[in-house]
Design goal:
The complex is a heterodimer of chains A (314) and B (259). Chain A is α/β, with parallel strands linked by helices. Chain A contains ten helices and 16 strands. Classes of the chains: A alpha/beta (314), B alpha/beta (259).
Chain lengths: 314, 259
């Protein structure tokens, strides 16, 4: 047997959906919404085109200034955030932010959030046909806004309804991002698939809180927040594992990834692509290191095509 | 790469950290900060970096200094690190104090650990021949000794206040400044607890005094991606500003302070 060398390795993955749509990535790494700004901040540290895809900060129909501060707290091996989707609104996103992504060669995904079905319809209409975008990520799982996001994501019927509406309007690639704050994530994942989603992303953050024992009050101004970071990874891996057996669309797995080993674990569980989020806040160029580590794993195990390990743990 | 060359206690739970670096992406300016990973390799706790404003910078020695107080897990871990330890550090980050105050009367007002970033600033202002008046306050005199010693090496008038004993006065840095404020200064710089900054700002604006403050805000990333440290502004468009990118230095009256 000939020993594989680094240049022989193939890290490409293809997120091929039931609708015959496909998102082709040069490697499985996708930035997680809200942890990478809109690209230019990270681009100061490294060439983000080396990643698989980029997901923008979540956008809503109208601009919003987010929750009161403190919006962030640390827990063991994790962070709690309650940013509350601070963003300039979809119109400003289209006029100011989208043009800035023109120079990027990697696929760009716009993450959209809403407070009503109508919000998602409006967002899908406004983003339909935007050539800068490879697709949209429908966030049905934000734990930090009241009366939206996660409220939809915990109800399979709502997931189906909203996804179906968005599917009717938006002709590009659609990823539905799901919440882990639910008894059985395979139900909402299947609902998204049946409604026409091209892929399912899991997981968003876990609903959580921290209390300041000196002030004897919740630490976050918003009381509750979403837990992310290494602490949530085992939960996310299990959810990907559960869904892989039931779904016929690809999975974007994320939650606490900070190394090549973590990416491999998600792929073995059944993820086709893998999100990197919290780690970007600590190590802006983490993606580059992680790609190296994936390659090292492939060399060690003499794996030529990375996509061959997807779901291999089953 | 950054290496610890000094990490010593200079007051009660107050430490001076001096790092030697190989190279920096740009020259650090007063008011900027470095984001230091205090947990060592392969440790997830604490996960986030800790931002520290620059206390002093000596380019000829490739040396940057910070003053920090042990207040939680991160600073406790940092305080135990030995000389020679290599640290993962990002910086300099953030927007610095403006420095266009040649030959002017400048007031510096610092409270508690907020005094730290004013020293590197004072050194630069001294070079511009500014007429410097420095007002420093802390809960206890023991927390001021180190700073008093450092500032007294500069050409500046120094006034001290503590809550525990009568120095120039007994009270806060704000009380001290107001008591001594006779001539209207051309510009002020202030750093300290948010309530103190709110009070300084209120008095300054009332007297048509212009200046800048450096604020402390819980940060996530320090590079502008996560929006954890967003500040409400009083500007016309009300657009939030990030303490880590547009700040931590803001003009008086620019952001909403919790008074």
């Amino acid at each position: 047997m000939v020993n594989l060398e680094r240049r022989d390795l193939d890290l490409k993955v293809s997120m091929k959906s039931k609708n015959n749509k496909s998102l082709k990535l040069k490697n499985p790494l996708v930035t997680a919404s809200g942890t990478c700004g809109n690209g230019k901040e990270l681009a100061e540290f490294f060439d983000i085109n080396q990643l698989g895809a980029f997901t923008t900060k979540g956008i809503t129909v109208k601009s919003q200034s987010g929750n009161k501060t403190p919006r962030i707290a640390e827990t063991s091996a994790g962070i709690l955030n309650s940013i509350g989707l601070e963003n300039p609104g979809v119109d400003s996103f289209i006029t100011d932010i989208l043009p800035e992504t023109k120079d990027y060669t990697l696929p760009i995904l716009a993450n959209i959030s809403g407070y009503s079905k109508q919000d998602f319809i409006t967002l899908a209409e406004k983003l339909e046909g935007k050539e800068e975008l490879a697709g949209i990520e429908v966030n049905l799982s934000c734990p930090n806004i009241k009366g939206g996001g996660m409220v939809f994501g915990t109800d399979s019927e709502k997931v189906f309804e909203i996804t179906k509406k968005v599917r009717e309007i938006y002709s590009g690639y659609i990823i539905v991002k799901l919440t882990p704050n639910i008894t059985n994530i395979t139900e909402t994942a299947l609902a998204a698939e049946e409604a026409g989603a091209d892929a399912a992303a899991m997981i968003n953050t876990l609903s959580a809180m921290k209390i300041d024992i000196d002030r004897q009050k919740p630490l976050l101004a918003n009381t509750f927040g979403g837990l992310s970071g290494p602490a949530v990874k085992p939960v996310a891996v299990k959810m990907v594992y559960d869904c892989y057996k039931k779904l016929n669309i690809p999975i974007l797995g994320l939650g606490g990834v900070r190394s090549g080993a973590d990416v491999i674990e998600f792929m073995l569980a059944g993820a086709t692509s893998v999100g990197i989020g919290t780690i970007n806040m600590i190590e802006p160029a983490a993606g580059l290191r992680i790609i190296k580590e994936i390659e090292n794993y492939m060399l060690k195990h003499q794996i030529q095509k990375l996509s061959s390990i997807i779901g291999a743990a089953h | 790469m950054f290496k610890i060359i000094t990490n010593e206690e200079v007051g009660p739970d107050i430490f001076k950290l001096a790092l030697k670096y190989d190279q920096l992406p740009q020259k650090p300016e007063p008011g900027q900060f470095f984001n230091i990973k205090v947990s060592q390799e392969l440790s997830d706790d604490p996960l986030l970096r800790r931002p520290f404003s620059i206390f002093d910078f000596k380019s000829e020695e490739k040396r940057v200094e910070f003053i920090y107080k042990v207040v939680g897990k991160g600073t406790k871990i940092l305080s135990k690190l030995k000389n020679g330890t290599e640290l993962d550090v990002l910086g300099p980050l953030g927007s610095p104090f403006s420095l266009n105050n040649m030959n002017k009367e400048i007031n510096l007002i610092g409270g508690g650990m907020g005094i730290a970033p004013l020293f590197y600033l004072a050194k630069k202002l001294e070079k511009q021949n500014a007429d410097l008046k420095v007002y420093l306050g802390a809960a206890d005199k023991s927390e001021l000794n180190f700073f008093e010693n450092k500032f007294s090496q500069l050409k500046a008038d120094i006034y001290l206040a503590s809550m525990s004993e009568e120095l120039t006065i007994k009270g806060t840095a704000l009380d001290l400044w107001l008591k001594k404020l006779k001539n209207k200064p051309d510009f002020i710089y202030s750093c300290g607890p948010e309530k103190m900054l709110a009070a300084v700002e209120k008095e300054a604006l009332k007297n048509n005094i212009i200046g800048e403050i450096s604020i402390e805000k819980r940060m996530g990333c320090g590079i502008g991606v996560c929006l954890s440290c967003s500040c409400e502004t009083k500007t016309e468009d009300k657009k939030n500003k990030r303490a880590c990118v547009e700040g931590p230095v803001f003009e008086l009256g620019e952001v909403v302070l919790d008074g």
